[in-house]
Amino acid sequence: MQKFNTLKSIPAYLPIVNIDTDMIIPKQFLKTIKRTGLGKNLFFEMRYDDKGKEINDFILNQNPFNNSKILIAGKNFGCGSSREHAPWALLDFGITCVISSSFADIFYSNCFKNGILPIILDEEKIKELSEYANRKEEISIDLNEEKIMYGNSKINFKIDSFKKKCLLEGLDDIALSLKKSDKIQNFEKDLKDKKPWIFND
Amino acid sequence: MPNTLYDKIWNDHLVDQQDDGTALLFVDRHLVHEVTSPQAFEGLRNSKRKVRHPKLTLAVADHNVPTTDRSKGISDQESKIQVDTLESNCKEFGIKLFGMNDKRQGIVHIIGPEQGFTQPGTVIVCGDSHTATHGAFGSLAFGIGTSEVEHVLATQTLVQKKAKNFRINVNGKLPLGVTSKDVILQIIGKIGTAGGTGCVVEYAGGLIRSLSVEQRMTICNMTIEGGARAGLIAPDEKIFKYLKDKPMSPKGKDWDKALEYWKSLKTDDGAKFDKEINLEANEISPMITWGTSPQDVITIDEKIPNPQNEMDEDKKNSLERALNYMGLKPNMSAKDIKIDKVFIGSCTNGRIEDLREAAKILKDKKIASHVHAMVVPGSGLVKEQAEQEGLDKIFVNSGFEWREPGCSMCLAMNADKLKPEERCASTSNRNFEGRQGRGGRTHLVSPGMAAAAAISGNLDDVRKYQN
Fold first, then answer.
1. What is the ipTM of this complex?
2. Does residue A201 carry a pLDDT above 70?
3. Minimum distance, in Å, between the CA of residue A174 and any CA atom of chain B
């Protein structure tokens, strides 16, 4: 997984609440058996018209937001399905940080598996940051310091310490868990005694 | 200290817990489908890892399968590749799969319970947010992403942090024509789509206990639409009776031992909940959704909301956006909404009781001439049962199409979809923009309400057709 350390970009602001995973990447693109290549279809229905032409009004079709690495959006971002295609599409487009006042649980945890940093801020702070987006000014993010810097101001954000470590170091979850193989084995042994029906033997 | 049911299942599955609260949780049951698994198997192959417990995993193709004649296979090339990939992955890693022509094939959340793979007190995961369905059996069941699918395949565990406890009590009795679908829509309307974020919901109270196993599944299924990853109900005699003698249920001495354990699965008196709400079933009416979020609910007797009455600017904008997408005018009556299509099926309402409920309304009646309607049974076994009861004939005689099992138009990954601006009364779970096809307009309803809409040609009150 790609490490996440610091990030500097003009953010794109999408002031819609409850952006669901079907909006982020519609189902016709879930037929892939790969993780890559979904970026061009990110927000497909808002981004392209019926003939497949880019809709100029849509923020990610406009310069410089078509190169944004940071997306600021309304509350409850990523609600709906568990499809990891949603963070894959964001990542493939180039977005590695999403800022919202709240995220859906499954989407939130999927971000961390893909080197994407989801930041939760108060609505007020979101409004403040969105002005930077509207003025096409850069903001920077420092994960280690848990800080967003913009103009002469800064905002602190909070992130779970283990998730932060995994992002900073780009750690592979599975390898970490496999280091605990002994504990898993002991658990299984105990389980076979206590609940023999679980193993379908 | 008194514990909640969620606390108990959680504690019982802890393999390891770090000082920061991050836990490694053992997974007893893993369901796999074709859409969210190919990249996980690919990951295993790339890192030369094996599936730790192939027998604890069960696979089925459901999202992409055609619901029409399957003898010619799948014509859509991409869909075919995904289904074929699942088949070859299962073969390579030794996982049991119900193929497209197996009569046990069906929607993953319908076949788990049907086979007795779903059991009380277990941790059940699947790369699908509607995994919450299995919580009806008193299991901790939730959806996961593909990276987590790979993690479970490789380690039979999952890295998790404990969620909050949220209890929803529903008491009283359901009025005529009101179903568990209306109950869950009412709950989502009340708490909002983010109301359960960060929580595991326990459904309790007299009404919940009075529900059948299948009605409970409908409620747990849509827990995710209220933002909570998992929703569960303490198992009781109805659950034990349902599971007895299912193909994958425990047998003989194991059954006795399992039963003893299952009976202990309930929230202790005095256990603490972080959040709690109460609902009175007697006050619930048949519900519809009018907008593009499952929280946009009104009763069939109400009118479409007016954005002008909304003070909050953001809420007003989002209301306007939803009405515009749905092609509806403020203040119009729900019953004046004309529909083009009806879809009965999905992991929410594709079980035998759902089909019976709809068939009861449709018996000896014809659907409106402008309506195209279809029934997609949740599994091959549901289909078989319905045919034995003659329900297929009732549907076909009324003008419905009787299809093969799968997810179908709930998310329109196969050929079943809405055209732009087509309006559908649907028993599925999401009314998101484009969910049932680009520009398609979805109204979520119960199976009886879907049948009533088909007959009337507009959203209508099921109670009108109740005998």
1. 0.96
2. no
3. 6
